[in-house]
Amino acid sequence: VILRPTGKAVTFSPDGRFVAAVGVMLTATENAAAVWDVRTGKRVHVYPNPGNSGVWEPATAVAFSPDGKQLAVAIQKTVQLFDTDRFAAGVRLADAAGAVTALAFSPDGKTVAAGYRVPLGVPDGPGAKAIGHKVGVQVYDAATGKERTGYDGFE
């Protein structure tokens, strides 16, 4: 079975039934998060941009809950939880402070952590470059999507 995940982040569901990835090419100009059935190799769902910003953005991080019933998908500052039985959108977490680069569920599945990065020292104008990044972790209640706490730092 060839799974063909082309993403930057790839994860298996806890039971090994599914594999999910971000950066999956949909068209020549679009990529998203997708889920495949490991046994058949067939793509069973593609998760669209939950940001609803009017501007297409690629998915950046993905994580399954410990029971495999939810999949968290990040696009920029937005994290959307999806039900893996029906592939339906569930709770949307409060926006993170910066672009989400990593996701993880707590062992009991009740909490979601989102790692993020925010560029620092970016002046306006062409050729502007970041001189560093503020990095942090925001912790959310998976049932309500509300932020519980956060941790920050610099790199």
What do these coordinates show?
The protein contains no helices and twelve strands. By secondary structure, the protein is mostly beta strands. The strands form three sheets. Strands 1-2-3-4 form a four-stranded antiparallel beta sheet, with no helix packed on it. It has a four-stranded antiparallel beta sheet with strand order 5-6-7-8, with no helix packed on it. A four-stranded antiparallel beta sheet has the order 9-10-11-12, with no helix packed on it. A hairpin with a 4-residue loop joins strand 7 and strand 8. The chain is globular, with a radius of gyration of 16 Å. The N terminus is likely disordered.
Give a quick summary of the entry:
With 155 residues, this protein is mostly beta strands.
The SSE string, one letter per element, is EEEEEEEEEEEE
Q: Shape, please? A: globular
Strand proportion: over 45%
Q: Supply Rg.
A: 16 Å
Q: What share of residues is helical?
A: under 10%
- Compute the average pLDDT: 83
Placed side by side, the strands forming the largest sheet appear as: 1-2-3-4
Q: Which stretches are low in confidence, meaning pLDDT under 50 for 5 or more residues running? A: 1-7
Largest sheet: 4 strands, antiparallel
Structural class: mainly beta
Distance between the termini: 40 Å
Number of strands: 12
Number of helices: 0
Structural topology:
Blueprint: E1 10-12, E2 18-25, E3 31-37, E4 43-47, E5 61-64, E6 70-75, E7 78-83, E8 88-92, E9 99-105, E10 111-120, E11 132-141, E12 147-154
Antiparallel strand pairs: 1-2, 2-3, 3-4, 5-6, 6-7, 7-8, 9-10, 10-11, 11-12
